[in-house]
Design a protein that fits this description.
Elements lengths: L5 H5 L12 E8 L3 H12 L4 E4 L15 E2 L7 H7 L2 H24 L7 E9 L5 H14 L3 E4 L10 E10 L2 H14 L3 E3 L4 E5 L4 E5 L4 E9 L17 E11 L8 E4 L5 E8 L2 E12 L9 H13 L4 E11 L6 E4 L7 E5 L5 H18 L5 H4 L5 H4 L1 H19 L13 E6 L2 E7 L5 E5 L10 E3 L4 E3 L6 E3 L4 E3 L22
Parallel strand pairs: 1-2, 1-10, 2-7, 4-12, 10-17
Antiparallel strand pairs: 3-6, 4-6, 5-6, 8-9, 9-10, 11-14, 11-15, 12-13, 13-14, 16-17, 18-19, 19-20, 21-22, 22-23, 23-24
Helix pairs in contact: 2-6, 2-8, 3-4, 3-5, 4-8
The structure holds flavin-adenine dinucleotide.
The site of flavin-adenine dinucleotide has 39 residues, from helix 2, strand 11, strand 15 and helix 8.
């Protein structure tokens, strides 16, 4: 079984051409995930001339590889925002996400989008005594905000539930079908979309000059960076304010009853559950085993762990699909949405959705489209990337110390001199003082790549589950041949004999 998300397989989506000419547009949106396509939808609906470019396919990134929960319940978050800031900020975060959920439902109804959107309760639970207090605190803050929520001491799940909180009238859907449909509407509303078009350079001006990898120039009055990790930093240090976290999902043939609802636990190991019915499929999705990118356990097969868990707890036995994805966590649980920094008034960013990008990505589209068309939005202060806490928190400092340590340890690490490698095996080899990652595929073909990350030069770590090279500093990922799988890196890894990797941070 190939590791591919069910959502991606379930909806092919239209193919859009690669950009092969210079163009001028009112608004260029880089990234065709949920924030990018929803921004394009809202702006083109208001008559703004928009152009979307994506390095791969529309919704081919994290937006097509998640669990498809559309909810303002984001695990334990409201009590955290309240203690980091105050109740007002937590309420504003809720109201933005709740508005986004309602907006998504109205877009789906208005355009008859067939994406299995279904209103259901969302539950956050714990099976550990240690987390009962966290759930109780969260419940108190949610009630103070005015959220339609309930406290539970048990749930209709075959688990040893100690405490849970539910939000009523949340939703689940098929994200790929939703985003593919929105992209088609963008075209009907006069927008343009280009796929397989990677943006490399930004020259910030009144009319921004943006250049693709192939050298084509896009002039745009407004630039929206919705590339998951911002491909352009504008001297705003996003690479140091975002932490990449990876999780794994299996979809099993569902043969037993599963309660109507979406579930997630608080403790470790993480577990997230939902069912899906559509297109002749009847699936139980089981996700979890989250870890920081590049910090997973090479000896663990996360899919096998999830499969054993699902068999033991839910009695299902056939895994039909499996996939993994990573998302960017912000330092204070709130995404970075708005002007890329306080000095720039025509470059916007949307990132740091902390694994809740369906509603938060829609919030990003609401805020950015309002800022572009009217210069104002009711939620702009809550999500502004220029808020001081996102730079100065203890987490920020800890994370950057962490990055520095990774960088140094990467430089000092000594590789294995043995070059005897079995099929399907990876070994680090040191050749003339440089560490390379050597991987032999099933046909015995050997790939030897330089494992210095092309983003900022950290040493990459092998991810045996996905056969990829993952960066523990900023989350870039490469396949065993050296191709970029996920940014912020933009250059591939060079093979042995091709010289050193081209390290390009794209900060300026
Ligand atoms: C395992 C997992 C489960 C999740 N489950 C949920 C859930 O149930 N509910 C929820 O709300 N959220 C969930 N999330 C989070 C959610 O999926 C993400 O927050 C969201 O999809 C991020 O959207 P994005 O557009 O920023 O990124 P992406 O969807 O990755 O889109 C970014 C796009 O930018 C393009 N791009 C990048 N660089 C360039 C460049 N230089 N030039 C051109 N294009 C570029 C990429 O090709 C990509 O298509 C989950 C996340 C994970 C990891």
């Amino acid at each position: 079984m190939e590791n591919e998300a069910y959502w991606i397989l379930s909806s092919e989506g239209k193919n859009y051409e690669k950009l092969k000419k210079d163009i001028t547009t009112e608004c260029l949106i880089v990234g065709g995930g949920i924030p990018g396509i929803t921004t394009a939808y809202l702006l083109s609906k208001k008559g703004v001339k928009v152009t979307v470019v994506d390095a791969g396919k529309i919704c081919g990134g994290c937006s097509g590889r998640n669990t498809g929960k559309v909810t303002s319940q984001h695990n334990i978050i409201y009590s955290k925002i309240k203690s980091e800031y105050n109740l007002k900020k937590a309420k504003s975060y809720y109201e933005a996400n709740n508005k986004a959920l309602n907006l998504m439902e109205s877009i789906i109804k208005e355009n008859n989008i067939d994406c299995s959107f279904e209103r259901l309760p969302a539950y956050t639970f714990t099976e550990s005594d240690d987390y009962i207090k966290d759930i109780e605190d969260e419940f108190e803050v949610c009630k103070a905000i005015g959220i339609d929520c309930e406290y539970h001491k048990s749930l209709p799940l075959p688990l040893n539930i100690k405490a849970a909180i539910s939000f009523n009238k949340q939703a689940q859907f098929n994200p790929k079908k939703y985003i593919d449909a929105l992209a088609e509407i963008v075209i009907k509303q006069g927008g343009e979309i280009y796929e397989n078009t990677t943006i490399k350079d930004v020259d910030k001006r009144k009319l921004n000059k943006i250049t693709s990898e192939d050298g084509y120039v896009i002039y745009a009055y407004n630039l929206v960076i919705a590339s998951h990790h911002p491909f352009y930093d504008g001297m705003s240090f996003y690479f140091a304010r975002l932490e990449p976290e990876r999780s794994y999902i299996i979809a099993m043939n569902k043969t037993k009853d599963f309660p109507k609802g979406m579930f997630i636990n608080v403790e470790s190991p993480s577990r997230t559950l939902r069912s899906y019915e559509g297109d002749g499929e009847n699936l139980l999705l089981v996700g979890g085993e989250k870890h920081r990118v590049g910090k997973g356990d090479e000896d663990k097969n996360y899919y096998d762990i999830l499969e054993s868990y699902a068999k033991e707890k839910f009695g299902e036995d056939e895994v039909k699909y499996k996939w993994s994805a990573q998302d960017w966590l912000s330092t204070d649980h709130i995404p970075y949405i708005g002007y890329i920094n306080a000095e720039f008034d025509n470059i916007y960013v949307a990132t740091g959705f902390s694994k809740w990008g369906m509603t938060n990505g829609t919030v990003a589209a609401m805020i950015i489209s309002d800022l572009i068309t009217s210069g104002d939005d009711e939620f702009k202060e809550t999500f502004t990337p220029s808020r001081s806490k996102s730079y100065l928190s203890k987490e920020f400092i800890k994370q950057n110390v962490n990055v520095a340590v990774e960088y140094i340890s990467g430089m000092l690490r000594c590789g294995d001199k043995e070059v005897s490698i079995e099929n399907g095996e990876m070994k680090i080899v040191r050749i003339k003082g440089v560490d390379y990652g050597a991987f032999k595929d099933e046909n015995g073909k050997l790939f030897i790549v330089n494992i210095k990350c092309t983003h900022l030069g950290c040493e990459l770590r092998w991810n045996n589950c996905e056969r990829s090279w993952d960066c523990p500093c900023h989350g870039s990922r490469f396949d065993y041949m050296g191709n970029v799988l996920e940014g912020p890196a933009i250059n591939p890894l060079k093979s042995y004999g091709e010289g050193p990797n081209k390290v390009e941070p794209n900060i300026l």
